[in-house]
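Hey, can you fold this one?
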Amino acid sequence: MAEPNKDVLLAQIRFAYKKPIVLGEYPEKQGEALEYWIDRFIDEEVSQYGFENIRYVFSDHSRAIKLLLLYLEEKGVIEDSGVQIEEKEELRTMLKGSL
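Sure. Predicted structure:
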């Protein structure tokens, strides 16, 4: 069953990641590849969690970017996210709603 609020939130996150926040810092060719990975991040990683958890985690720009960087690092798109292991676990716990 579709969750309209969650779908709207995911669309907003997708838009925010793609242009003003992330891709402006990369050459166009690399930017296109990043768009693909951003879509995968949202579709595979973020969308599996509940609306309230997503809203809470992504209400903080720094947390949101760290989650994306961790995902990109795990998929081999970037080499070093710069995010510490403890922080990584804390972010994942927030998304799962276990805090």
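DSSP finds five helices and no strands in the chain. Let me know if you want another pass with a different chain boundary.
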